[in-house]
Request: fold
Amino acid sequence: MPMYYSLRYFFVFFLCLVPYAWAGAASVAVPGDYDSIQQAIDALQENPQLGDTVLVARGTYEENIALASGLTVKGVETMAVFLQAKVSTVPAVSGDAVTDAVLRNFTINSGDTGVKLTASSGVRVINNVFRMGSDATAIETDDQTDAEIFHNTFYDNGTAVSRGSALTILNYNIFSNNDVAISPNSLTNGINANCLANNSTDGPNGLDVVTTNDAQFAGGSFNDFHLKQGSPCINAAVGTDVIDNTTADMGAYGGANADIYPAQVRSLLVTDVSDEIGSTSVRLSWAANASHRVSHDTNPGGYKIYYDSDASGEPYSGTDALAGTQASPIDVGNETSFDLTDLSPASLQLSVPVITGTSPATGVVGLHWTAVNGATSYRIYYGLNDVSENVLEVDDVSYHVISGLTDGVSYQFSVSAVFQPHYYFVVTTYDNSADTNESRLSAEANIVLGDTAESDLSGIVTAIPEAAVPYPILPNEGCFIATAAFGYYDAPQVQLLRDFRDQILLSNSIGQSLVKWYYANSPEAAKYINQHEQWKPLIQAALLPLIAMAWLTTQLGWPLQLLLCVLLAAVTWLRWQRRGVSQSISGEAVS
Amino acid sequence: MIFRMCLMLVSAVLSAGLSTAVLAQDKPDSPGWEISFKIGQLQSALEQWDDYYPDTPVMLSAGFAYKLTRSLALGLEVGRSHVEGKGSLPLNQTIGGDVTFTKIPVNLMLTYRLVFNEDQRWVPYLGAGVGKMYYRQEISNQPEVEGSIDSEHYKLGLQFLLDGLDQSSAAEAKSRYGLDNTYFFLEYMKITAEQNDAAFDLGGKIISIGVLIEM
Reply:
């Protein structure tokens, strides 16, 4: 066969292989490609050409997932991907008769059982954190399952691992603060190089165990199970850490499959220290990352400050710190406080907004205006005789409803645009590895710096708050009897009863039924009253207690209502006392 | 009220008279009941309606009737229309405020159908009746207004027998569910809902299409 044909066949053969190679390496994302982890697993089972890995983004997932043969389910960052059992009595993760499945880089923290494996083989549960609570079991396997439980951290579980046989191998895990670390005692094989720390019952130790009172987590209270410098679990496993290429640590952040991200920076604070420093300056401070890869005595990692003065959120591309010589991000080394000095807050010449319309309603006026480029907020000036009587600051909006106004009165309104220079900050941490692995961004902090600029006032517009009159004007058949008795719909007494209906009666089901009954039955009575004028004074008098009650309940604040109740109770009690005394006196007189 | 009484009387006399002509054709297994569903547009009788409500409201209705004879039915029909619009602001001399206007006509009606045999493809009909027009105006941040007004109505329409289009399905519907005939219909209805001392009429003209099923 000529060389030409050989090459051609080889090329065709190679092309045929490409899709398989590509398929083997591919993954699907949750969320993104699929809404839930289980949907993604099911999809990969039905269409293996999509890939063999479900990559789960940061977030909390309430699911009961079932592993599938040959598939890897992987969280992006162990301490930021939480898996919680949706049905607590069903394991958060189940594997029934599956082979070669992998679960890695999750924090599983809710449910009666974290992972349950039955009749499965080659399943790997690696680099996860299990924090299920004292009534739960983190991992349970049956006697037919062979599985590798490697590099996990078990913290605060009822039972950390319950094995059905020694085919389930426990290596390089940290068991800390569990009621029972490993169960049962009778199975001692297949347990190698684990760290046992402060468990009520350790169970079988196995080989090369590290026993300690404190595993020294960087921040167990906020699910940071990286290890502090000095932890006996550091460099105590077998193999190499993917993070820093040293001997593997025990626990979820050791070995070849750990996630590489340091914990997110917490408790970022920003304060204005311009007066102290003498130029426009801020001081940032944050909680130290206690991981040995960040806060090491001799080889620490560090922190980076990202800032911007244009807008919240990424990208943080500020350039003006230290008179324009410290562009974002700033590597501040292993400090947990840093001053950004000589900042140059922007100053803007704002154009004047134009009021484009008003929307009066009862007790309120809605104001529309044109948005001004660069404005961070607006000030609404309004009053009866002069707009300077009241000032209201609102966010960066172009419509606002001014409330608390009096119906029927003409108000004047004007608007100005305001610019307040804001600075936005986030901080990351990076570890001491050659790659200086960097955490995700911290929560954002912001501060107002520099002088506030305000535009001239807009032209003045007037509007009168008033109740809208619907079309057509229809009779309202509410409070029929009172309307008939007092003669007209807008009588204050009738309005009080209407308020009582709306605020008190219609707020509960009994009141609603009462109103319904009243509307069904009162029109006839109202008709009778209208036809017999002589009854009206009597009906008015009869309604007085009800009107008084309506006034008390709708017009008085609760302190006065309480005071009246107390007074009423006191008077009743006194009367009852006197009555008792007078009865006993008359009884004695009779006897 | 006199008008309503007259309407009822005329329709009753008309229907009774005409129905006697075909009464003999009634069979023991003739349908006893009918139900109907229809959708239509309510053209309000209010002169300034368009100034306040940009949309022509859709009226959805459902009804049932008892067949006094093969041609004459006495029934009840309930509808609902719902439209969003604005109110007026007299002091500001403009339109404003959000108003939601709901009308629920409840009609008692007599309907006479010119049906002469069970296979008649086209069936003209007419009817009249009285009822109540319930209304509710919900105004943003204000108490709502609600009540009802007496109403009367008449209607004309044309029904088209659908059974002939698919006889096997029609036969199955009868054997399984007891449905005798199914009609598609086009209807014109005029409702008047005026208050004696008020210069408004909450009624209007409704042109509807719908389905009527005899059982």
User: Anything to note?
Assistant: Residues 1-24 of chain A have pLDDT under 50 and may be disordered. Chain A has four domains: 3-227, 269-346+423-443, 355-420+453-463, 480-555.
